[in-house]
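Methods: example folding runs. The two proteins below were folded one after another, and each record is reproduced exactly as written to the output file, sequence line first and structure-token line second.
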Amino acid sequence: MIKKSNKRRDFIKFSTLGILGLSLGGGIIISPYALQAEMRLRPPGAVEEKEFLALCIKCGQCLQVCPYHSIKLADMAKGHGVGTPYIDARERGCYACSAVPCVLACPSGALDHKIEKPEEIQMGIAVLEFKNRCIALTNTPVPKGHSKRIHDFVNKQNNITQLELDMLEKLDKFEGEPCTICADMCPLPNPLSAISMVPEEEGKRPEIYEGCVGCGVCEELCPANEPAIVVKPRLTYEDYYIKGLKS
């Protein structure tokens, strides 16, 4: 029995040391997640990713002042950058608040204080990546209950704001109509600088312009089961549409 216990202890000890060695060495376990960190959609004003990770003190103040509950803090499951703020656009995009409160709340410079208005935000770029999902292209009316997912997100918040309620009221009116949600719900002061619906053979197609800041609202509100339009974090209009860079 003593020999068996010793063997068991040795197995646990050396197995644990092996796992720790891989983790500390940043090998197979760590490196894929480190790369994923640069693919996150960061809050408005986020500086270059490596600098952002160095400057962010993980205080959560940007999250606390966001009136749309758009900002989340990365947990262990997200890998590299635990505790740093990010936005899951399909769950809740950034509504480009006029005062950009998240930037003002940042005490460390991880969110650049030179950003003072929505048009100056540059989070990423919207892309109609899955045309086969776009119901506007087939002239399919916005389905009943399309906004349930958005309502459910808002209703689970502890402090629902009037801004969120106003957004839901506007969104609900699209039910049964030809889909123009991504263009008409764009939160920028001049949405036509970022996106519009252009005629196609059967319906209309969302077209992205240079004014797009990558806020992710179009991805969040897309009524398809899976979003037809998605945001590419950290890319600009020039990067994607002119230089042809892909993320």
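Second run, written to the same file directly after the first:
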Amino acid sequence: MKNLFLITLFLFASLIYATEQIPDVLKYNGKEYELRSFSPAHKYFQDKGFQPPKEAIQTTGNQKIFLFTYEIINEKLYLTDVEILLLEPNKKYPNMTDLNSKSIFKEYFPHEDKILMDVSKITVIPYGDLIEEDSWSDGYYKNYLIFEFKSGEITKKLDLSKQEYITESKKQFKLFKTTKEYKEVKKDIKAKKSVDFFNEFRPKKLQVNINQYIERHIFYKIKHIQ
């Protein structure tokens, strides 16, 4: 009964406080980076129909249950670990439980130590401190890693400071404006709704038009870095 109470208490606390998702991890050049918007293994597992073990715990902090670790090896993106959260008895106090993590990579890939992620896209990985300006929605991170992948292999990469990222965004937007894709994005009703949503959280003096919005998010709009 006490164990059930502790589990219930933990899950209730999670619903209230744990609103931010636990990030997946990318290992690159001896460093670890948090992945919050780019994690191709989630779709890979979904497409394969892989189900989590029954012991896996789901909270508001890991709503997709699986926690993935990637590594760039020889300029290719690999999945190198898969973890879940689970509740285990506390070694010192058997009537209490601890939330721990467990690797389950070998349960899905018993004969492999890494799996190539066959992804073709540009991805942006912010890192370092968030530098807020006039409002939290106007902030930029201190640094940005940008990779262009083709079938899981890096075809182009950039490691930029905040100012370099802004300058490069302006350059890529200028080139993008000459393309057919630019006209399609400007007409897209979803893009207009995204601008409205973006402006909703900004002071009026900082609100952007659709061109400024596309420029700020240019690496999410283009297919290739020029």
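Comment on the second run: The radius of gyration is 21 Å.
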